[in-house]
Amino acid sequence: MTKPQQLELIRTCFSEIEIYLDGSFRQRAKDLQITPPRAPKEILSIQQDFCAEENTDYLAWLTRKHRAKTRLISSREISDNKQILQRFLSIVRDRIDPEVFDQDEAIDFFETYGPFDLQRLENILTDLLAAHPPNLHLSFYFNHIHNQLLGGNHE
To answer: Is the pLDDT of residue 85 over 60?
Structure first.
């Protein structure tokens, strides 16, 4: 006569049961949990603001659409930035040796990290030129200005 098989159920945590048959692991199961059915997904309305023409540059159309949504900078802000840029250039040009001054690099620096507090900029340049000659590469001065004003490294 065959020996009857022994079935053993062990609860490992609140939601799992391990099933052993004759001492060897057979299966891990989770308790059956009945939940209410999910509500059907809401069908989203399709926006029909696509370009009317079929043979058009879709990327250019998207770009125009995006630019129309972006905030425009007021002309006063632009003129203020231009005035600050001119003052920035005059401060740097007056204090740095003309042989090493590069207006394009100065404008790039201003457009990337500006506008600055021009009084602090003058103080930083004065302190820097008291310790170093005015004929070093322009990036040397801009690195120090960036570190003092913004606390980072200009590359």
So the answer is: yes
